[in-house]
Amino acid sequence: MKTETKTTILFICISLLCTALFVADLIFGSITIPLRDVFNSFIHHQTDNNYYEIIINFRLPKALTAVLAGLSLSVAGLLMQTLFQNPLAGPDVLGVSSGASLGVAVFVMASSFVPAFLGVSGWGIVVSAIIGGIGVLLIMLLASFKVRNSVSLLIIGIMFGSMAGAVVSILQNHSNPDALKLFVVWTLGSLSAVSWTYMQVMAPLIIIGMLIAVFAQKQLNALLLGENYARGLGISVVKTRLVLIIATGLLAGATTAFTGPIAFIGVAVPHIARGLFKSSNHSIVIPASALCGASLLLVCDIVSQLSVYTIPINAISSLFGAPLIIWIIIKNSK
User: Fold this and answer.
1) Which residue intervals of 188-236 are DSSP H helices?
2) What is the Cα–Cα distance from 225 to 153, expressed in whole angstroms?
3) Confidence at 8, pLDDT banded by 50, 70, 90
4) How far is residue 273's CA from residue 81's CA, in Å, rounded to a whole number?
5) Which residues contact 328 (CB under 8 A, 6 or more apart)?
6) CB 167 within 8 A of CB 102
């Protein structure tokens, strides 16, 4: 009972921290907006508040995107670490993120042949990223039926990611400077690129992925003790693998398509959640990872906006995540 109380208190504290960071993300930026004016923006119309446009149409969707991207990447990373029994596995091990990057690269490099209604930005980039991610995901789903060993599946995912990266490098080498710049900017990641229109597509995909992850808690807990133990409990490892791949594809694929690739959140945050809650039970670690991931990406967004020059979100997340991963490697090597 004492442990349950501590867990509840910790959940409340992290939830309050996440809420405070969400409000701070609305306040701070190129211009600091007083807290009173932030609340007034939700009550009054644009004519009553000079900050209405900034808050409602720019900072609010950006903050919501930070929450959605943070929780989705963190939970996707947790699913992959459990499935592959690898503490350094992340949401990109399936090659979905690499597939999305390949889709965007092909689209941008071939922009002169793309119909005018798609353009070289906006929905065109989103759709191409989704197509690329789905293509790799379908290949991984087919492989999951043929491959019995999860480690082999992990290697297949890494190989597909490497092949996609090789094709992207070839396209970059033969592209014009303008197309190359557009692609590089996309790879830096951006939370501000998600408008309310994009949110209507991004949010449902992430919610579906989260629901699948929540309903797979029993199977995930069984996998912690190995695939043979899970089979002994009557759990179909092949079906579980399929479900986890679909959930990760939805979570990581949707986030990458709309925000671009965001590094290290998916790898680092599950370890933070396990360390804080001293538990590997997925009924605890899944919501804990979601809250910690949302909080961390909100911090990254605030830091990127408070600097003299706006820093890409990918750079900030790497500065936070890379030291933690180094620590994990050193700790596991002892």
Assistant:
1) 196-215, 217-223, 227-232
2) 19
3) very high
4) 13
5) 87, 88, 271
6) yes
| pTM higher than the cut 0.85 | yes
Q: What is the mean pLDDT of the chain?
A: 85
Is 263 in a helix, a strand, or coil? coil
Q: Residue 39 in contact with residue 231, Cβ under 8 Å?
A: no
The token duo for 311 is 């820093």
Which two structure tokens, joined as six digits, stand for 212?
């699948």
Task: Using alpha carbons, select from 205, 209, 289 the residue that is nearest to residue 245.
Answer: 209
Instruction: Report the distance separating Cα 69 and Cα 211, nearest Å.
Output: 15
In the block, tokens 């890379």 appear at 322
Q: How far apart are CA 64 and CA 83, in angstroms?
A: 28
Question: Do 16 and 53 form a contact (C-beta atoms < 8 A)?
Answer: no
Domain positions in the chain are: 1-64, 90-262
Q: Are 199 and 77 in contact (CB under 8 A)?
A: no
Return the percentage of the chain with pLDDT > 70, whole number: 92
Distance of CA 143 to the CA centre of its chain: 23
Task: For the domain covering 90-262, report its CATH number.
Answer: 1.10.3470.10
Is the pLDDT at 64 greater than 80, yes or no?
yes
Q: State mean pLDDT over 162-171.
A: 86
